[in-house]
């Protein structure tokens, strides 16, 4: 096919109606064919059927193929002829080279368009795989952390065993009262260090005299992650923690559950569970001590309009600023109120953030500020990144509201950081970018993460 002819209508290119233009896929069409192909501001290449990415209205939205155009001009305005209707041998050679070059360029543009199409398909596959990998990566992180802790415990245990051997050698060689007293002091020191070592192992190894409770019996004692996980798996009716409050306040109850092999301590509430043989009860304090408040991880469970399944978001808190402590207390429900049952408020008004923390029954009503309305002192500031959790600026009128950023803004510093999303970031980004009615998103539950 002649490269100076349109590959769709086969008309000769010119500088007017049939002016050559290049599509993003690499194919060239005349202006007339492009105008006839546009449908509702969209254009599909008639050769490879690829959709043009931007909104188009006419052929003028596409760049002119100047290579073809120059070839046309060279034919229409040849050099000074040596005779009537004749062109020089040089001009013929130049035309042949130009035609060959244009054919090469058009072939290259077509191939690079195909590469772009394959790349788009590959990126879709990659995103689908990442969605499946993320939950596994969270579980892998948990197991790796447990492995690191157990290796540290094992190494220190080997050192303690060597100390026992040293004491034994001293006892065998002891020949005086003074040497015996020295060995006794050494034994006491080793014993104290070993007691601390045993406490560390309790998080992973059930204690021999720690027997799981019989049904309907509230028990006390040492609870560790392993024994608690086994107990939850063995009780179809659930494991509940009870917090004994003053008589005028009444007791509170919190359920322990497992989601994706992660232990969750749900927020406290005043409604007791129905206790039967399938239920076990544990003192709240026995489970609560598994959470390190200096680096606590909380969770929010949200329901999104139009989606059948709820979504989990894990937030790792940082430091002990007043608002950070308050956020943790409002997730656990330990002060009598929680974020459970509240709705998202708005998005986009605080940088790139989603704002939450207000109940749906009133526009201005908020949960009570538990730690007062004085401005907390934040020792650090941080760049705004996707998933950053922060307190609101006006803590006098918005004492319990918080925001989670949905995208990066490296030009902005956040002066009130409280932590960041460590799981469920894609949910926050979806809420920020795609959910129009953000006030319909409800926090249906919240609490503390036990096994991270």
Automatic annotation (TrEMBL):
UniProt domain RING-type: residue ranges: 6-49
PROSITE patterns the UniProt entry points to: ZF_RING_1, ZF_RING_2
InterPro entries tied to this protein: RING_finger_E3_ubiq-ligases, Znf-RING_euk, Znf_RING, Znf_RING/FYVE/PHD, Znf_RING_CS
Superkingdom of origin: Eukaryota
Single GO MF annotation: zinc ion binding
Keywords: Metal-binding, Zinc, Zinc-finger
A single GO BP: protein ubiquitination
Protein known as: RING-type domain-containing protein
Origin species: Meganyctiphanes norvegica (Northern krill)
Organism placement in taxonomy: Eukaryota, Metazoa, Ecdysozoa, Arthropoda, Crustacea
């Amino acid at each position: 096919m002649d490269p100076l002819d349109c590959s769709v209508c086969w008309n000769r290119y010119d500088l007017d109606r049939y002016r050559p233009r290049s599509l993003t896929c690499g194919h060239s069409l005349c202006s007339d064919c492009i105008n006839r192909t546009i449908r509702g501001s969209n254009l599909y290449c008639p050769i490879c059927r690829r959709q043009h990415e931007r909104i188009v209205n006419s052929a003028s939205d596409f760049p002119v193929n100047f290579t073809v155009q120059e070839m046309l001009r060279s034919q229409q305005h040849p050099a000074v002829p040596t005779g009537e209707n004749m062109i020089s041998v040089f001009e013929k050679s130049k035309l042949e080279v130009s035609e060959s070059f244009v054919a090469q360029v058009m072939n290259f543009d077509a191939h690079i368009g195909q590469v772009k199409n394959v790349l788009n398909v590959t990126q879709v596959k990659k995103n689908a795989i990442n969605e499946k990998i993320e939950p596994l990566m969270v579980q892998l992180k948990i197991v790796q952390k447990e492995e690191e802790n157990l290796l540290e415990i094992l190494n220190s245990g080997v050192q303690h065993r060597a100390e026992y051997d040293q004491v034994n050698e001293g006892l065998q060689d002891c020949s005086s009262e003074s040497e015996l007293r020295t060995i006794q002091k050494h034994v006491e020191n080793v014993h104290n260090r070993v007691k601390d070592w045993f406490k560390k192992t309790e998080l992973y190894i059930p204690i021999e005299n720690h027997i799981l409770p019989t049904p309907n019996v509230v028990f006390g004692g040492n609870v560790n992650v392993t024994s608690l996980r086994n107990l939850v798996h063995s009780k179809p009716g659930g494991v509940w923690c009870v917090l004994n409050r003053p008589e005028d306040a009444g007791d509170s109850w919190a359920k322990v559950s497992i989601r994706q092999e992660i232990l969750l301590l749900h927020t406290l509430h005043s409604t007791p569970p129905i206790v039967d043989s399938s239920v076990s009860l544990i003192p709240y304090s026995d489970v609560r001590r598994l959470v390190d408040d200096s680096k606590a991880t909380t969770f929010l469970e949200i329901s999104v309009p139009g989606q059948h399944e709820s979504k989990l978001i894990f937030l790792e808190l940082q430091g002990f600023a007043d608002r950070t402590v308050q956020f943790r207390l409002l997730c656990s429900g330990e002060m009598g109120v929680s974020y459970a049952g509240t709705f998202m408020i708005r998005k986009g008004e605080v940088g790139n953030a989603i704002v939450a923390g207000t109940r749906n029954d009133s526009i201005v009503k908020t949960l009570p500020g538990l730690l007062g309305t004085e401005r907390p002192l934040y020792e650090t500031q941080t760049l705004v990144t996707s998933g950053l959790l922060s307190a609101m600026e006006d803590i006098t009128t918005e004492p319990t509201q918080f925001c989670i950023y949905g995208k990066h803004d490296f030009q902005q510093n956040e002066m009130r950081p409280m932590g960041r999303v460590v799981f469920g970031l894609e949910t926050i980004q979806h809420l920020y970018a795609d959910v129009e009615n953000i006030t319909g998103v409800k926090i249906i539950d919240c609490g503390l993460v036990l096994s991270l």
